[in-house]
Queue: 2 jobs
Job 1
Amino acid sequence: MAEPGKQILEIENLSKHFGGIRAVDELTFDVKQGEILGLLGPNGSGKTTLFNLITGVYGADTGIIRFQGQDITNQLSYKIALKGISRTFQSTKVFHTQTVLDNIATAMIARARKRHISESRKKVTDVLEFVHLEHVRNAIAGDLTHAEQRRLMVAMAFVEDPDLLLLDEITAGMSGEECNEMIEMAKRIRDKGATVVLIEHNMKVAMALSDRIVVLNFGKKIAEGTPEEIATNETVLEAYLGREEA
Amino acid sequence: MKWKNGKGKPEALKGGHVSSNGDVGTVTGLLKKKSTYIFLVCLIFVVLLPHYSSNYALRLMITMASSIVAAMCLNVVLGYMGYPSLCQNVFFAVGAYTMALATLRLGVSPWTALFLSPIVTFIVGYLAAIPFLKLRSMFFAIGTLAFTGVVSAILVNLPKITGSDAGLRGIPRLVKSDINFFYLEIALILVILALTGLMSRSYWGKILVAIREDEDLAPHFGIDTTKYKRLTFAATSALTGVAGAIFFSYQTYISSNYFTIGSSFTALAVAVVGGGGTALGPIFGGLVVVGAPEVFRSMNVWRPSFVGAVLVIVILLSPGGIVGISQNLRGYLRKRGEK
């Protein structure tokens, strides 16, 4: 494990174009070991595209992505996952016809290191407790509520203790109560010492959770700093908050 | 197919928990109950059957058994992995021609040829998997159908090698009596049944289901979907090839007429009618799809339409196939019992 404060993910001049649209445009930033970095930006600012580039869903046009010092640009998704990057999705993605336990088991299969079964068992029990899904462990994932499915998705990403966790709008489509529960959970993930990059649409949630925030607009980084700095940044207010007030 | 033991794979966490998506049919699971005895009785029945059958019936049973093998293999690709392959009979053909050409042209013994056929079929299956498994759902079906067409055309147009539609005669028989051929096919069915059962309980089965459910999600858990898809496709092709080799060694005659585009639907029909994604489905499917045309033999020209109608009715009544019907029936009877 690297010492805290060291860069775990470095992104340099990363670009991705879709036709004429520059989804990610010459983007450069770092993620440090043990921090929670918030990615903020209006719709279509390239946040999810960035996650897709980091996890190998899309190939980058230009630029380099380094994870723990290694170049992972344009590698296959499964190899990136095995290196220790885990993610959730904006739209809920779980294996719908499988039980909660089967879902978590599937998420563990490839990443389970050589270890005793009892240890795997314990991991499952722990993660189910962590996301408050013990009571539905044998239920079919597709039958769960939206909020439960999203918690399951986090559990599947989190179960093998990834070195870097990418959370794409964990509160998407949730009511106030469920939202708070999710924020609580994200805080507990932070307390466990995980390094997290968080896409968050909700300004309040991002401010509450992040140690540092990077703001994107039209694929470019327009601001970077602590939540306090971002909250008073003129450019951000114009690009992001200004639009919300309108 | 191999599965690494002692790796603490998560499926071991679940104890007696049975996968809940209708993937019944795991052999070990069945054997724990009274179905063990049903299975044994069926097996004894199957073993005794050919001794009391006419030559015609025995021939039908051997044909049925080899269709069942092809369908069981397809069932893994279709039912577990979710890929509707229409080129199962290509691998049946590759296995069969390996048997025919190795014995007739190279002069090796039929048992050596039987050993060669899965190796050759595995390689062909793996090479076919590289382009075709990049396609999904309907496109995969169309691609594999075209592949069947291509192979069929090759078989017809290389008369010097394949004998074209005039065929190759005098393929040596693996065993002398027809009954032993039947036993060979049954042994192959039992092997595949056991492998499917093991597979569905191992991490391999979980990975295939994950691919079927959401192929784009699985890689984010570190699953190399491409590798498992190709290996599964190639392994099932190899086993289909063995069935082809046995069947045409029994026939002693092979011709390109057996491998038309139309015949590529048989395996699919057997798998779907029996019930996709279940280990026993293809066995019931084989009995119906291969058996029905014989039952309606007296109907002459109306036979194909009648058989087609039977298949459509089965699928309409129960998308889960024959295995699905029996499950529905059991549920219905249980409900009536409760009243």
Job 2
Amino acid sequence: MLNFILKRVGAGVVVLAAISFFTYILLYFSSTNIARNILGEYASQEQVAAKEIELGLDQPLLTRFFDWARHAITGDFGTSWFNSESVVQAITTRLPITLTLVVVSIVCIAVVATLLGMAAAVKRGWIDRLVQGAAVVGDAIPNFVLGIILVTIFAIQLQLFPATSSIAPDSGANAWVLSMTLPVIALVINGVTSSAQQIRSAVIKQLEKDYVRTLRSRGISEREILFKHVLRSAAPAGLTVLSLQFVGMLGGVVIIEQIFALPGMGALAVQSTTMGDIPLVMGVVLYTVIIVIIVNLLVDLINGWLNPKVRVS
Amino acid sequence: MSQTVELTGQTGTVVRSSVVKKIVKNPLGLLALAILAVMVGLAVFANFLAPFDENFANIGKTLAAPGGENLLGTDSVGRDVWSRLVFGARTTLLSALLCAAVAIAIGLPAGLIGGYYGGKFDAAANWVTNVLMSLPGIIVLLTVRAAMGPSVWISMVAFGILISPGYFRLTRTAVQSVRNELYVDAARVAGLSDAAIISRHIFSVVRAPIIIQTSMICGVAIAIQSGLEFLGLGDPTVATWGVMLNEGFKNVYLNPLLLVWPAAAIGLTIGALVLLGNAIRDALEDADKIKAPKRGTGAAGAAERVRPAQGASGSAVETGTEHHLVKVSHLGVGYPQADGSVKKVVDDVSFHVDRGEVLGIVGESGSGKSQTAFSILGLLPEAARIVAGSIQFDGKYTVAPTDDRVSQTRLSEFRGKRISYIPQEPMSNLDPAFTIGHQLVTPMVRVLKISKAEAKERALKLLDDVGIRFPEKTFNAYPHEVSGGMAQRVLIAGAISCEPDLIIADEPTTALDVTVQADVLDLIRDLQKRLNVGVILVTHNFGVVADLCDRVAVMQNGRLVEDGPVREILRNPKDPYTRKLLGSMLEGKEPMTMLVSTGAPAAKPEDEKEAVL
């Protein structure tokens, strides 16, 4: 078990290193005018040159990368080039907003999609048609378009929610709920429609298995078969669906946060990439990838726990 | 019988044109094609359809309402919304295609090579795939944009790379599944080069899934692209739907209508792509369905005949009131077909079983013998319907003469308690996620209402009874840790655990090794004698019948052709089909001919071989 975790963590570190390097190369090409951008149009040539040396922009790519990496390993991601805020600070004040949004959404999606998917698989009939129809509609309307629709109707026309939130991590619970409701709804509706259909197929696949028939023949109630046996066997497939949803959502919130003016990681990502604030971009990318790696590891661990065959090996 | 097969009208081969036809016939597929045709039309003829250039701004006429020369009004700098929508279709669709093309160009060859050759390339490609799939797409695209500028085309090339694992995995799985097929081996033996095999045999397998995937991916690409542009990160000089959304959202207080057009265009296009993908999938799956059921059709063809005249084996059961353990009267089971007809798989079958008696039901695959057994258990597939007849268990109807399905409430009184089941395939009939002990204990706790500890004690005793050497060890094992023969013993233990009156065994030895078969048959015989239960033994093997059964019923094409005491039928088969079955058995299957020495007990081979645990 410990071995497995260590191996996966090791693999994660390698992935992280590869992604960092790749991202750094990409950003290298965007950093040609950065000193000028920081100092503004009226800075003298000497000032710009001095700034470039200060930021290490005169160094070759590899030197710059390893310099950055050496600090990053110790947890020091540097400071933003534009406002001198520490990168770790900038991220940790915004991460709670994004994580709340994503985690609340994924939990809602997991519960609703599982119930709907199971109901559709077992009962068939209208609920099955609903789930399948909703899947097409959900795929057709990207979550940010849904967000725009929600904000237009409920915030701007009906004024039930603030159109632009101004929450910070230290705002009261009330403000959080008001600001989070619409974005969570946008993410959840979209996630539920696509996951419910996949959970439905996973459940149907299990229901057709021979062992279900044998369990029935043993006098086990339909409910016990469904919630104990079928759900458990369908869970790995469902978890995979949800973990993909989660990864997708980490990207998707960038747009959602922009629509609802939530000061989360998304805003930071847009801002830092448009300005070419390399330390900040690197920080955002790394934090996001670390979260993805952790989630994937968790999913693997749960799957291992669910499936005795994997558990043994 | 073979003539009737032709009558069903299900010819084997399916040509590709029929897939296209099916998509067009499917209303949703047709709708999707129509929407996409309109969008492509807009894109192709944009120069004729748009009255203005996409960037022509009439500053004097901003945010105009629809009407006049501006069909859908103007935006905040006075650009014609309709013209921008039409030009936007062009950019949006082309860039989505570009994205799919890039993804295919990377994913397809990689998948073909990785799936076909495996090895280092496959491992490396898999690693890259895992990395790409753990990247949050939008953030990478933001980075790419920062590095390479705001061009739609660059973003879509980057997204194509990001999404190429989808094609890689799809192709790789498909290739792996056919790589070792016989026809591919044959091609290899015939001296075809790998390139020829891949392009001729393997590419044809992945073609259809690729088309479906492409349809979906174009939709995703449009969504991502408009998302980026909505963030204000698109190229402002190019009209796309995403840029229009951004523009509309900025003016949402002044003119929310500006949002509607691009949102509708995006929703309709992606929706049409998804529907098209679904329609193609449905069409292909339908085609597969027609190809598949070759074996079942024989029964269907025969069963199509009118029922009443066929009272053939009327001798089976009189409609008297005698108290049999199970009495099946004139049972008919059918499956409703798409065209409204009912395909019968069991037709006018009548028999009975008494306590302590073993009835064999014999017939070849598709003769309806398993369907008959499952109707008694009430475990027919969802789609099945009882089309005629009735079933009584211990004097009570489980299928009343008017029922069209087995009553689950009435059966739940008996199933697991008084009727139990031994399945054919031991491994797939145990839930892999639970220990063997758990799967033995739970039914006893539920049915016999005893405590868990008591049930465990009984389970250990049962495992011992069915000849398992180390009951405790097996009790704690998971199904994948025991052999097939042992799993079958476990299932038999489960079947007798709640002291049933009737055991229905569906080909209980077919899936087992020949040496284990005899053991399991011995076990069933011993238990049957000891517990004095009634047994219905479904099998295609007359040897098994001769070994175990008191009476036998022979089924063919869903009907009962002959039944009676085993000795009588073995010595003097009346029906030509029975004679054929017996004949084929005696000639073809030498090792199983216990027939030649009727009555002689099966050899008692090495029990020990089994006891792995």
